[in-house]
Design goal:
The protein has about 200 residues and is an alpha/beta fold. About 45% of the residues lie in helices and about 20% in strands. The chain is built from 9 helices and 10 strands.
Length: about 200
């Protein structure tokens, strides 16, 4: 949910803002972190990845997270002018939307991660006071589970199986773009950056 909406943040005319927030989602193991890192390193996109504040433990290959206790998280949330809060598995995830808006005002395009549900996607698209587009990075359920078993020694399989069940055709249709990696990293990164360029330049 969005909390403490500051009227000054909501008054921007999203039709005239020159930058965009691109929402990235996908199955576990789809390579979201790799693609996001490569996009941020690219010198043609002028893009930043938005920090997420989380209370969960770190995982392998995490990127762009600030790890907090729940008390620290709530203090940060209460001090923000506009905060997007998401809670799952008894852990908190948050984005300081005031920080995001300032980055956009200063000329940056933004990448932000999204939990793979229609409700979460629509909340961001409708509530964030900046223009948004969305990309779902799609791989098969079987490949998703295989990669998680390899990368995380199987201790998150139950979570991934649940997430894969809630990703339906309707979920995919809610996104503006579907990106399907070919399992060739160099080719996939090039195609992903080209997709971002096309979105930004439209």
């Amino acid at each position: 949910k969005i909390s403490k909406v500051n009227a000054s943040l909501m008054c921007y005319n999203t039709q005239t803002m020159s930058r965009i927030c691109i929402i990235i989602s996908g199955r576990s193991g789809a390579g979201k972190t790799t693609f996001i890192k490569e996009a941020v390193l690219s010198d043609v996109l002028n893009i930043e990845y938005m920090t997420s504040y989380v209370t969960r433990p770190p995982r392998n290959n995490d990127y762009g997270y600030v790890y907090l206790t729940k008390n620290e998280y709530n203090a940060r949330r209460n001090s923000s002018t506009m905060w997007d809060h998401f809670e799952i598995y008894d852990e908190y995830y948050g984005t300081d939307i005031g920080e995001l808006v300032e980055k956009v005002k200063n000329g940056k395009n933004i990448l932000i991660s999204c939990y793979p549900t229609i409700a979460e996607l629509q909340k961001i698209a409708k509530s964030y006071p900046v223009p948004t587009k969305s990309i779902f990075i799609d791989i098969s359920e079987e490949l998703s589970l295989k990669k998680i078993r390899e990368e995380r020694q199987g201790h998150e399989i139950e979570r991934v199986e649940f997430e894969n069940k809630i990703i339906t055709r309707e979920t995919l249709n809610a996104f503006d773009y579907i990106f399907t990696p070919e399992e060739n990293l160099e080719v996939d990164v090039t195609k992903f950056i080209d997709l971002l360029k096309n979105i930004i330049n439209k």
